[in-house]
Amino acid sequence: MRIAYSEKFLEHENPPEVSGRLKAIVEHIEGSKLPVEFEAPKKIDGEELLLVHTKRLVEELKRRSETEDSLPENPFTKKTFEIAKLACGGALRAAEIADEDGFSFALVRPPGHHAGRDFYHGFCYMNNIAVAVRGNWSRKKTLIVDFDVHAGNGTIDIFEGDDSVFYLSLHQTVRALFPYDLRWEGRRANINSVGLAPGADDAEYLRIFRKALGEAVSSFKPERVAVSAGFDAYCEDGIASLKLDTETYNAIGKEIAKLGLQTFAVLEGGYYLPDLGKNVWSFISAFR
Ligand SMILES: [Zn+2]
Asked: Relative to the CA of 75, which of 47, 67, 211, 218 has its CA 20 to 30 Å away?
C-alpha cells in the first residue's frame, strides 16, 4: 500500500488541527508494522491550483504567508503557503498511485474541504481533493464521497454544476455545526449533502450512507471515486456529536471498495488523537 506523505506537513500548527494528528497516524502504522510505503507528494508549480481556486485567493495566501498575516481560524507563517500547496501535491500523488494500484491515501494537512473557489476557513487553505480531481482525473466521471463530520462547503462551491463530478456528503447538520449555513445542505443536481441530527449512531449512519451511495452510483455511474476522509464523526471526538465507532470506518471503506473503481482518499478532519491511527487504518484496510 503506497501512501502519500511528507514530514513537512508537521511544520504547521493550528490547534486543534495539530501536527500530532499525523504523528499519531504514522506511529500507528509504524508501530503495528503495517504494510505501507510512504511516497513524497507531487511537486506542483501553481498552475494546478488555478484549476480550482481564483488567482486572487492564491495570491492572498502567498502574501499572508510572506508577511505572516494571520486570521483567527487560519494562522500564517512563512511556511504556510508552501505546506498548503504540498498538501495539494499529496492528494495529486495519491490520485496518481490510485491510477496504478487501484487505491491510495493522502496523509496530508492542512485539510481542504472548507476551501472554495474564492474563500477558505475552518482550518483549510486550499482544497486538496479538488486540486487532485481536476488535476489528474478531469476527463473521468468522479464520485466524491465526504464522510468528515462537517459539510464540505468548499468542495460543493467548487463542483456544484460540474457534471463530471457528483458530491455525496454525510455530516452533522449545519443547523448544529460549522459551517452553520443551510446553503451547504440538501439534494440538488450533482450534490447530495445529507445533514444528520447530533447523536446519530453507527446503524443510522450506515443505513443512510448505503442508500445515498447506491442512489449516487446508479444515477451518476462514476468511473472513479475520491474520498474526503475525515475521522471527526468518531464517538470520542469532541468537535462534534456523531457517534461512529472504529468498525464503522471499515464498513464505509468496504461499501466504497465494493464498487470496484479506482479510488483515492485524502485526510480531512479527526481530532481524537488516541484512536486516530486505528480509525484511519480501519478505513484503509477495507481496500487491501
Ligand atoms: Zn471536520
From this structure: 47
